[in-house]
Each structure stands twice: as structure tokens, then as C-alpha cells.
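Q&A log
Question type: sequence-to-structure
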Amino acid sequence: MKVTYASFGESVGFVATVTHSIQDAADEAGVELSVLDNQNDAATAVDNARQAATTQPDVFIEYSGNADSNSRIASLMADADIPVIAVQYPIEGAPLFAIDNTRVGQVGGEYLADAAQDKFGDATPAALIVTLPQGGPIQLDRSDGAKEAISEVYPDIEFSEVDSRSDAAVGRQLAADFLTSHPDEPVIIWTHVDSVALGVVAAVEASGRDDVLVMSTGGDAAAFPEIRKAGTPLVGTVGLFPETWGPVLIDLAERVAAGDDVPDVTRPEKIEVISADNIDELYPE
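Response status: OK
Response body:
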């Protein structure tokens, strides 16, 4: 069986881990796999799909975040009579493998709020939500889930929301500005991705404050040294465990190629906060 996989963008550590997992699973299953890099670019994703269509794989796995390009990709693959599996972002007519992003936000928000109660007692903290609105429903569902869970613990809390533009330097400046504007109250900061969270943590550490807690999302290995560091404001990251996605996706591809019925949506089973308490168990050094 031949499978072509178009990656969201190999420059992103999380995505590269997904790709390695798919490659390992394909090797294990004896599946012939070709990998294309969409480079987080809509035009490149369409070009890659057009290239893939000419090679006639049994299944095309697409990981692309642009709705317009995904619509064009759906048409290209339908014309070529090639079944598609969509990763994270829907493609018309294709089964979807995607995280429950609302749940991801809820898990992180609940953990952050509980940590704040342990540290700050009854005081309601100021809350900063660092998100990526242009990321569409995935990012909005995550931030909404986080706010919902935090509000369960702090019913009267007020949220300030900012756009990181998925840039660690922007995240650092936004966090620094928020800390400056809230000098006399404890602060909690929820972030949508680990790379930005590390910029936020840098701002907290530069401020010298010990009344700030940060929660991240993703489970990228780049955040692990910070989580292991004593006294860090980073209480954890919601692990999405991308290294486990490959076997599920290759199994789905085999079933799709065989003409079997598959669910409209398949969820990764493992979502868990990675913190100082469990990181050595989950990811031994």
C-alpha cells in the first residue's frame, strides 16, 4: 500500500514529531510512505496535493490548517479518486483525526486554576489568555475551554486576551506589559503553545515576581527543561503526545484503503498535563 503524507510544516517541532511517528508506523506496517512538507503555507499545500495526485497513492493524509487550500485539496483528490484522511483541520468528505481542543483547554485551565488556589489561597488572580485568534476554531476552542475551566474555580475572574501571533518575542512583551499593569495582585497566564509559553516565562522571570503561574499547551520537548527547573513559574504543559499519532493514522489509512467504514472523527486518546510531578515518568531523560 502507498500512502502520501503532507506535513503541516517540518520546521515546527511538534509537527516533526508527528511525521517521525508516521514514518515509524509505516515502516512497522510495511506501508510505502512519501512525505511532503507544506511549510505552513496554503499555496505549497495545494502544490503538494497536486503533486501527490499524480503519483496515485492509495491514501493521502493531509495536515494543513488553511480552509481555502483544504477545499481545493478536497477537489483535487476527488477528481483523482484518491481517498483523504485529514489531520487536525477538516477536509470535506474526509475522515478527521483531531484533538478535542475544547478538552485540551479545559485540562490546562483546570490544572492552572488548581495550582493557583494552592499558591494564592482565596485571592482571585488577574488572568491573561495568550492565544492565536487567526488559528481559527482549533485555537478558539482551546482558549474557550481554558476560560471555562478557570471560571469553574474562580467564578468572578476577569480575562484579558491577547494575540501572540505565534511569536515567542511577542508573547514575552505581552506578558511583560500585563505584569506591569497588574503589580499588586497574583497573576495566572494560560498560553496556546509551548514556544510562546517559553517567551512568557522569560518575561515572568525577568520581572523577579514569584506570584505568577503559567500554563502551556502542546507537550513539545523544548518546554521540558523549563518544567524540570526548580522554581519555574511554568506549572506544566498539556501533553498531546504527537509521538503516538503515527500508528493510529497508518491504521486508519489501511482501513480506508481497504474500503472499511471508519469514524467521521477519531480522537487521540492521550491528553495529560506534563508537570514536574510526572515528567520523569512520561519522558525519562
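Response note: The longest strand covers residues 212-218.
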